[in-house]
Amino acid sequence: MRIGVVGAGSWGTTLSDMLARAGHDVVLWAREPEVVESIRRQRVNEIFLPKSPLDPRLGVEGGIGDVVRGRDLLVMAAPSHAMQAVAGDVGKALGQERPQVVNVAKGLEPKSLAVLSDVLEEALPGCPVCALSGPSFAQEVYQRQPTAVVVASRDVRMAEAVQQAFATDYFRVYTSRDVIGVQLGGALKNVIAIAAGILEGMGLGYNSRAALITRGLAEMARLGELLGGEAVTFAGLAGMGDLVLTATGPLSRNRSLGVELGRGRGLAEILSERRTVAEGVTTAQSAVELAKRAGVELPIAAEVARILFENKTPRQAIRDLMERELKAEQWR
Hints:
Elements: E1 2-6, H1 10-21, E2 25-29, H2 33-42, E3 59-61, H3 64-68, E4 73-76, H4 80-94, E5 100-103, H5 116-123, E6 129-133, H6 138-142, E7 147-152, H7 156-166, E8 171-176, H8 179-201, H9 206-226, H10 231-234, H11 237-248, H12 253-262, H13 267-272, H14 280-294, H15 299-309, H16 314-322
Parallel strand pairs: 1-2, 1-4, 2-3, 4-5, 5-6, 7-8
Antiparallel strand pairs: 6-7
């Protein structure tokens, strides 16, 4: 296939390399001129995927039209906060072309609180859109470690086409019809991963982590079902699988940000030292607002948002969670 990848962060770069090695004709768009120069001169994305040589067949461009025109499939890997603007630029560059589109970013549009496939469908009318998500650290995929993800589309044929395009002997792709649930799982787990990092930064142990992950999954499923997702999705790769990875894995940007918060550092200070995006920061606010709209409680997400944006101490947040009204264990 002729594939354009929009967004040269670690995930977009890794998928571009994987697809090029699989024999596809792949061109990657990078907003940063230094990324374009680095890949062209050294065949490495030194900023977002350092020390990782890329397939020599992979093309890279700084002009978005050079990447999206004449493609069979567009892979949208821009961060959630930038997706709407980037998708608008893609739409202008496409003209009358209508390629298939797959969203691989994990987050929500901050203003509308929409899942990113909805953002893409609005910006790219007539383009069929699906979403790919699941437990997948970019560095481990680059290293060809066995990985399993899920691609969701209301059109089974499109899901199967993307499944075939992405599948390799180390990257296994399952299909799903639950476009909403797959994307909500990928977005909401980042908030719980920040909470898991906070616990670790405070020096708390495995009891606390197990309780957090379990109750965090309950929150994800509770909100996800009310917004149109399926319960079974949250027990699968895009829900529980991605949550476990992101809440426990040392490569998780959201978990590592939480660790620093748990050690007493402020959000602004942490973010000032980072070039990469921790999607859970903006998603925490979005999740709380979505919960208000849906009339449902998300106690963990709410406390994470208070720590991030209201200077609440992690210790007080944990105390408030533990002293909530006693109740039965249930999803709703």
